[in-house]
């Protein structure tokens, strides 16, 4: 099943109520907003009414709101070579045996301490 | 001659609009870009519906009646028919909301 990926590119300020109504029916309320609708004559007709205002692509599946958000997230500029959990385990393993004697909770606590000290 | 109370067209005549009679080259370039954007939407819709085997009356009508950006004459891209204007043409930028409405065809012979 394919979908229309519809982006509101131009604002409908000052356009007729009918036009704004079509946009509202498509679920478009602000510029650059993206909505997905299944490919059908009904939705194609709605897009025809606002063809000057939107950008349309045909895609294979609809993205969720969360996926759209993630796709827009900028590159953080760094990456984690090794998650800190592994490093804590390594420190505990190489450290004194007292942590192991006091139980799992104690060992994890000492691991956290090491982490903060470093 | 100088100073705050000098006589200019706008001050002496009241309302004076300074809307150029023709589009600038950059306005024309953007107009072509908008025309192509609409063409692209039409193409996407018609391809998607053709794959599903559906038809849409408004889409068929648009494709039958409206020229694409490449098929249009410069005259139709940047000017439009006006029965009151000299030589029956005025700049397309005189059309209200001209960047967000489609105005592609004109009366035959004009």
UniProtKB/TrEMBL annotation, chain A:
Signal peptide: none annotated. InterPro entries: Ribo_uL30_ferredoxin-like_sf, Ribosomal_uL30_bac-type, Ribosomal_uL30_CS, Ribosomal_uL30_ferredoxin-like. Residues 92-111 have a biased composition (Gly residues). Keywords: Mitochondrion, Ribonucleoprotein, Ribosomal protein. The keyword Lyase does not apply. Transmembrane segments: none annotated. One of its GO terms (biological process) is translation. Residues 90-118 are annotated as: Disordered. GO terms for cellular component: large ribosomal subunit; mitochondrion. Its main location: mitochondrion. It is found in: Mitochondrion. GO terms for molecular function: structural constituent of ribosome. The keyword Kinase does not apply. Residues 4-54 form the Large ribosomal subunit protein uL30-like ferredoxin-like fold domain. Belongs to the universal ribosomal protein uL30 family. NCBIfam families: rpmD_bact. Component of the mitochondrial ribosome (mitoribosome), a dedicated translation machinery responsible for the synthesis of mitochondrial genome-encoded proteins, including at least some of the essential transmembrane subunits of the mitochondrial respiratory chain. The mitoribosomes are attached to the mitochondrial inner membrane and translation products are cotranslationally integrated into the membrane. This is Large ribosomal subunit protein uL30m. It comes from Thermothielavioides terrestris (strain ATCC 38088 / NRRL 8126) (Thielavia terrestris).
Automatic annotation (TrEMBL), chain B:
InterPro entries: Ribosomal_mL60. The keyword Mitochondrion applies. The keyword Mitochondrion applies. GO terms for molecular function: structural constituent of ribosome. Keywords: Mitochondrion, Ribonucleoprotein, Ribosomal protein. GO terms for biological process: mitochondrial translation. It is found in: Mitochondrion. GO terms for cellular component: mitochondrial large ribosomal subunit. Its main location: mitochondrion. Component of the mitochondrial large ribosomal subunit. PANTHER family: 54S RIBOSOMAL PROTEIN L31, MITOCHONDRIAL, LARGE RIBOSOMAL SUBUNIT PROTEIN ML60. This is Large ribosomal subunit protein mL60. It comes from Thermothielavioides terrestris (strain ATCC 38088 / NRRL 8126).
């Amino acid at each position: 099943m394919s979908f229309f990926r519809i982006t509101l590119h131009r604002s409908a300020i000052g356009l007729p109520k009918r036009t704004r109504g079509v946009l509202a029916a498509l679920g478009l309320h602000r510029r650059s907003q993206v909505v997905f609708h299944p490919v059908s004559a009904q939705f194609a007709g709605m897009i025809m009414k606002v063809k000057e205002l939107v950008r349309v692509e045909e895609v294979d599946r609809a993205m969720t709101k969360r996926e759209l958000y993630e796709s827009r997230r900028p590159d953080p500029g760094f990456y984690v070579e090794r998650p800190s959990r592994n490093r804590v385990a390594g420190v505990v393993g190489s450290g004194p045996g007292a942590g192991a004697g006091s139980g799992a909770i104690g060992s994890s606590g000492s691991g956290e301490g090491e982490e903060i000290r470093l | 001659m100088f100073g705050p109370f000098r006589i200019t067209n706008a001050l002496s005549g009241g309302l004076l609009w300074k809307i150029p009679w023709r589009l600038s080259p950059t306005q024309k370039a953007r107009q072509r870009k908008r025309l192509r954007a609409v063409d692209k939407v039409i193409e996407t819709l018609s391809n998607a519906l053709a794959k599903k085997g559906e038809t849409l009356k408004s889409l068929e009508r648009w494709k039958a009646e409206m020229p694409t950006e490449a098929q249009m004459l410069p005259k139709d891209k940047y000017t439009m028919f006006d029965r009151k204007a000299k030589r029956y043409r005025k700049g397309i930028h005189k059309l209200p909301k001209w960047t967000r409405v489609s105005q592609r065809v004109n009366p035959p012979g004009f």
